[in-house]
Each structure stands twice: as C-alpha cells, then as structure tokens.
Amino acid sequence: MPAKIVRFPTKVVQIGTVKIGGQNPIAVQSMTNTVTTDVRATLKQIKACADAGCNIIRVTVQDQKALEAFAKIKKLSPLPVVADIHFDYRMAIGAIEAGADKIRINPGNLQGAAKLKEIIAAAKKRRIPIRIGVNSGSAKKDLVRLAVEYCEFFEAQKFRNIVLSLKSSSVINSLDAYIRMAQKRNYPLHVGITEAGTEYYGALKSAVGLGALLTRGLGDTVRVSLTADPVKEVFAARYILKSLGLLACPEVISCPTCGRTQIDIIGLANQVEQRLQKLRKNITVAVMGCVVNGPGEAAHADYGIAGGKGQGIIFARGKRLKTVPEQKLVEELFKLIEHS
C-alpha cells in the first residue's frame, strides 16, 4: 500500500460552509488583490478563484468604504469570505456584523486589550472564528511565544474558536514555528510562506515550505502567497496538495525533453495541463515524447499521449488505442477523457 500522511489532530472549526481541522480536507485559500470598493471586480476575481478550486477567500477591509463594499461582496460571494483587518478594531466589528465567515487579525496592532475584547465579544456572539495571524515581519519577539500569549488572552475570554498562522518569509523559520506551535495548542493551522515571491520562485519556495509542513501532518488550510494573480495561487496550492496525495484532482505527468523527441512535447504538456485545470476528475494524464517507451513508462496513468514524428498515440492505462496526427492529439485525448 502507498504511504499515507498522518494528519496532526486539531480542533474542527467552521468557516461558512467549510469545515477545517480534524480529518476534514485541507482547504485552499487565497486573497483578492482588487480594490475592495470595486465590488464588481472583486466578485469577478472571487468567482475565478472558486472556478480554479479555491475553498475560502480573504478580502481586505481597511476603511469604512471598504466595509460597505465588503457587506455587498459577502452577500454575493460563491465562497466563504474572511475579512482581513489591520489597525482599526471598528473594521473588525463591522465586518463581523456584515456577515464575515471569519476574521483575520494580528492582535498586536488592534489598539489595546479593551478593543480586542470587543472584537472577541462580537465574534462570540455571531459564532464565527478568528484567525490569529502573527508574521515575522511585524513580531518583536519569538513567533511561538507571541502566539501562545495571544491564545492565552483569547482563552481568558472563553473564546476558543481560533485558527492560527505563524508565517515567515523564511522556509526554515516558518517550519520551526509551526512545529513548535503544534505542540502547544491544537487549534487548526493556516500554513504558508509569507511574501514568498513571484509566480515562479514563490511557487517553488512555497512548495518546499508547505511540503515540509504537510508531510508532517501540519496544515488545515493553505495559501501560496505569490506576487501574481490569485488564481495562480490556487492552482499552485492544489498542485502541492495533489503531489502529496492530499487532494483529489487531475495531475499531469510528462517526460523531460531529450534528443529522441520529434514533437512539440513542451507545448503539448502545457496545453493538456491548462485544459485539465477546468476538470474536477481525479485522474492522471501522461504526456510522453516517445512512442516506443511512453505507454510503458506511464502505464499507471489513466490516460496519455505519446509522440512520434508528426503524430502520436492515444493510450489508457498502458493500452494503445489509436494513432492520430500531432495537431489532433490534445483534442482526441480530451474526447476520450470527457466521454469516459
């Protein structure tokens, strides 16, 4: 039997229609980068993230106009919406009253203990969770020590509907913080590498950090933080989860290019990957550059194509089905997938 990751036991928390923690599926999260007051653009981006497989979306609420827009966004969003709050405690209370499914705060920048107690009371009344987010960039002390202090404050108010995140732009520091925190509290963990970088490097850096955490069973929600379209964050997060057997979704396996390749294997692999993003089938699709070895090397794939000179074969689970011209390979492959 294949090895299986054993999830670290955490409390179950409800975020709108999504349950996280315990043995619930790891949720993919992203954050809009539109101006919140542009309700139409923000909703369009949320829908695009939902179509890509996002489970939870976060929206910044930085002032009164954004708060008014947030109320409209929440009513029309296809995803549970988290309000991202910094500095002004009134925005947190307003977002809670506007229907936020969760709020994300850094308690250290919310105008003192009295104001924080008001936020907790509002969240308790509406029975929504609060994500306590501590980042290395804004923390003046050890992340774990700081997070524990915040937990103790919340617990003293008899509030335990908590999600924790302890993010750093350093993979090693993030890994250390999450591992130590898991030994101190069993609240669900939102994991990620903050300020990871651009689309390419940020995805690689996140894969290293998230992979190290997830293989240890740590993580109940994930975000890949990229300087890019949020939809690309969603795809990257889903691919990371898929690679660890933690998400049922399509996967492409493809051979590296070599001197034997006589078709555009790079272009074919990219076309197949792009089209698979729209499917919700839990399948593996192979794109191989060699007709002789392709089906054998990728016999475990559900479907595949293997190229020759100007043409290729369509195969399923190692069995050759037909030969078609190169320009028709992708189309014929997806006819097979969609009708199977």
TrEMBL record:
| Keyword Coiled coil on entry | no
> According to its UniProt record, which reaction does this protein catalyse?
(2E)-4-hydroxy-3-methylbut-2-enyl diphosphate + oxidized [flavodoxin] + H2O + 2 H(+) = 2-C-methyl-D-erythritol 2,4-cyclic diphosphate + reduced [flavodoxin]
**Transmembrane ranges?**
none
Q: Tell me how the cofactor is bound.
A: Binds 1 [4Fe-4S] cluster.
One GO MF term attached to the UniProt entry: 4-hydroxy-3-methylbut-2-enyl-diphosphate synthase activity (flavodoxin)
| One GO BP | terpenoid biosynthetic process
| EC numbers | 1.17.7.3
**Gene3D superfamilies for this protein:** Dihydropteroate synthase-like, Sulfite Reductase Hemoprotein, domain 1
Residues engaged in binding [4Fe-4S] cluster: C255, C258, C290, E297
Spell out the protein name for this chain: 4-hydroxy-3-methylbut-2-en-1-yl diphosphate synthase (flavodoxin)
Please name the source species.
Termititenax aidoneus
Which gene is this protein's source?
Answer: ispG
